[in-house]
Write a structure and sequence with these properties.
By secondary structure, the chain is mainly α. The protein is built from six helices and two strands, in the order αβαααβαα. A two-stranded parallel sheet has the order 1-2. The chain is elongated and about 60 Å long.
Length: 156
């Protein structure tokens, strides 16, 4: 399970990075834009009557749910099995990506994207914790097996 997820998450990250920098005809621009005031973009999508449903779904729900698989990183990287380590890692990683968008002029660097992406990752993380707690897809067995292998290797 760990191997399959590791391959999936790497491929998924590559596709997301492509979407963030090249999809929808994104070209490098000499004009870079950064939105650093929290909740301005989110508020705009909820309050502006001229926003069509597709733009709302893509920008709000897309920014949340496209990043939820990253909440499962604890499955292949043990140190990301805790709330604080995965949250700090994700905040740093997504902030770097948003900064690169700003520096390259490909897209808008938006603090609301960081908030929504992190919310998505956290939803994924809590679903992962729930799946582990309920032992859905025998996840608990996978972690017990990893723990046993670790004990054997440190005892040798």
């Amino acid at each position: 399970m760990k191997r399959y997820f590791a391959v999936f998450i790497v491929l998924y990250a590559v596709v997301l990075l492509y979407m963030m920098f090249y999809a929808s005809g994104r070209e490098p621009s000499e004009i870079s834009y950064i939105q650093h005031q929290p909740f301005i973009t989110i508020q705009h999508f909820f309050n502006d009557q001229n926003i069509d449903n597709q733009a709302f779904v893509v920008n709000i729900f897309g920014n949340i749910f496209l990043f939820s698989p990253f909440g499962w990183l604890g499955l292949c990287i043990r140190k990301f099995n805790g709330f604080i380590p995965i949250t700090l890692f994700f905040l740093i990683a997504i902030s770097i990506i948003e900064s690169i968008q700003y520096m390259t002029g490909r897209g808008v660097a938006d603090v609301d994207d960081i908030f929504l992406n992190t919310l998505g990752m956290l939803i994924g993380f809590f679903l992962f914790k729930y799946a582990t707690w309920k032992n859905i897809a025998n996840i608990k067995f996978h972690f017990d097996l990893l723990e046993e292998k670790r004990r054997v290797s440190t005892a040798s």
